[in-house]
Automatic annotation (TrEMBL):
It comes from Kibdelosporangium banguiense. This is Cytochrome P450. InterPro entries: Cyt_P450 (IPR001128), Cyt_P450_B (IPR002397), Cyt_P450_CS (IPR017972), Cyt_P450_sf (IPR036396). It comes from the Bacteria. Keywords: Heme, Iron, Metal-binding, Monooxygenase, Oxidoreductase. The keyword Heme applies. The keyword Heme applies. Belongs to the cytochrome P450 family. Its cofactor is heme.
Amino acid sequence: MTQGGLLRYPIPADAALEPPAQWAELRQQCPVARVTLASGDEATLVTRYDDVKQILSDPRFTRPTASDNAARVADVESGGVFNSEMASVLPQHGEAHLKWRRSIGKWFTAKRMNALRPGIEAMAEQLIDDMVKQGAPADLKANLGFPLPVWVICDMLGVPDADRDRFSRWSDMLLSMTRYTQEEMTAAQMEFGQYMAGHIAARRAEPGDDLLSALIAETDVNGEPMSDITLIATGMGLLIAGHETTANMIAKMVAMLLSDRQRWEELLANPALVRTAVEETLRLDANSGFGMMRYFTEDVEIAGTVLPGGTTAVCSMAAANRDENAFENAAEMDLSRSPNPHLAFGAGAHACIGQPLARTELQAVLDVLLRKLPTLELAVTVDDLHRVEGLVVGGLQELPVRW
C-alpha cells in the first residue's frame, strides 16, 4: 500500500464497483497527497472536487510533455499513451490546441449526435439479438460493450470495423501502465502508426464522408493543411479514446445498475430517467482509471498548500465526484440527480472532446437494453466481478449476464 513511506498510486480497491476507502480519508485529511507511481516516480494526488476542477480548468497547466521533467506513469521510455510520439505531436497549448479542437469538435455536435443515434440504436439491437441467440449466460462486455463503440468510431473515421481486434490490442498496449513491456508498447505504436498512415494515404487518394477525409481536405487561414503526423496522431488518439473508455463504461454502467435490482426496476418503470441515470453512473464510477495529469510550470496554491513549479499533479476525477461538499449524499446513487456537474470527462480546455458521443452511446445502449431485455440480471455475484488491471483506463474483465 505504501512505498518508501508514500501511498502507491493507483490505490488498489477490494471490490470491482466500489472505491478504495482511502479516497474519503484523503479528501478529508490530506487533499494534496504525495504518492508513488508505478514508475517509482513521485507525484501529487488531488482528490477534492473544487481542487481537481481548479487544476483542470487552469489554462496555464496541461498534460506533461516530453520536454517537461515530469513524473512518469510507467517505467518505460516511450510507447505509452502518456509519453508516446502520438502524445507529443498533438498541440497542448494556446491557439494551436484550440484550432485542433475546433477541427475535431465539429464532428461531435449535438446535431451530429442526434443524426447518429438511430444507427447506434439499430446496431445495439442487432448485437443484443446476436447475444440472445447464443444463449445465456453471456458476457455483455464482449457482445455489446466492446463492439458497439468500436463500430461507431470506425464508421466516423472511415476505417474497417473488421480490424477491431487489432485496434483493441494496440490500444491496450498504448494504455498500459504495468501490463506490457517496453518492446511490446514500442512495437504497437509503430504498427498502429503505420496502419493509420496507410489509411490516411488511401483516404487522400479516395476521400469518403468521414472525419479523417474532412481533416485531410481542411486548411487553416493560411491555406495550410494538417500535417500527416498530426493526422496520424489524431486518428490513433480518437480510435483509442473512442472505443476503450466507452466500451468499459457500458459494462460498468450496466453492472452498477444491476448490482441493486431496485435501480433497474426504477428505470423500467420510468425510462425517462435514462439520461440522468447515465450521468449518475459516470459520476459514481469508482473504476474509471488513472485520472488526468497536469504539470505545473509555476507555483500554485491548492487546498492551502503551495505546490512548486515542476510538480506533477494527478487529478482523481473519480475521487472528486464523491466529494460530499460538491454532491449531496455523494456516496448514494440517485438516478434522478440533476444538476450533476461531475468531472468524469474532465474540465476546462482539455475536457474530453468526445463526451457528446460517449453520452449518446451510453443512453442509446441503456434505452435498448431496457426495452429488449427487461429481465436482464447479473449471472454472477458482484463480488465475482473483476477489474481490468495494469491499464490507465478502468474497466471490468467481463460482465456475465442472463435474462
